[in-house]
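W.,

You were right to be curious about this one. When I first looked at the sequence I had no strong expectations either way, so I just let the prediction run and decided to look at it fresh. Below is the sequence, 315 residues in total, followed by the output.
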Amino acid sequence: MIRKLLPLLLLVLLFSAGCGEEEVSSEYHIEYLNKEKTKIVEVAYGPQASDTEGLIREFLAQLSSDTDWVEYRKPIPSDVEVTDFSLDGVLLSIHFDEDYNKMNQVEEVLCRAAVVRTMTQIEGVDCVSFYVADAPLTDSKGNIIGSMNQDSFVENPGEQINSIQNTTLTLYFSNESGDGLVVETREDVYYSSNISMEKLIMEQLLEGPQIEGAKSAIPAGTKLMNVSVVDGVCYVSLDETFRNQDYQVSEAIVIYSIVDSLTELSNISKVQISVNGDTSGAYRDNFALSDMYDRNLDYMESPAEAVTEEPTEEE
């Protein structure tokens, strides 16, 4: 641990050892990981400090320390060091060494959620930003994550990220010529347990394909406004950008990229697409927004026939 945290860390460890597994009555808690490191667990904690800076130091020490409970794991791994922190107004900046980037995707998201949710309990700390080797923390695409608060880890209203799961998705994108669909099987897609599968599919479609020979069918910049399922019908609302015309992709490919991807889910049989919730009019010329569309694989691109027959040897 950093020198600035060592004295207080020893105090925290002694306090924890003295308490054993007795229940602590406190207005504060520490967010730990379960032993499988797939879920956040909230544990009541009685701090020694009472001032803002003292609480920050103590909570960081606790988040980096092994617990007395075998079912909990510290969210900041042993090989990740907190090198510094600073409080500027209500923004707490926490600096980690470069080993922070060695965490896998699931562990990193849960670590970040646990730290932010623990630290923002402190009066005077409204948001938290992370730095790794003195550079702002970025996502997998290189975008700066920026400041985070309790709401940064809310997928649906009133629900916070408590666990991370993974799944395999079958997604349909446009081929390069824009006149056919190509399928991509995307394995090990990690997502919050609070997010619906239909929302996950739409978010993955909007991100675009990860395979060669494919491109996104949905107009660039389109945002998902809402998605829900009622009685087997999936209602998808996209923003006004969806109406942008990209004539390099046929209108049927745009529609069935969405429909065929969503109907991979067993609970969805039809899909209705709207623009900001408005189902009047049509998408381009032929696809009424008021209609509900069934699965249609007629636009699937036929794979080129490979010549596999080998010449026979004459005796």
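Here's what jumped out at me. Residues 10 and 263 are 56 Å apart (CA to CA). And, maybe more interesting for your project: The longest helix spans residues 105-119.

Coffee later to discuss?

I.
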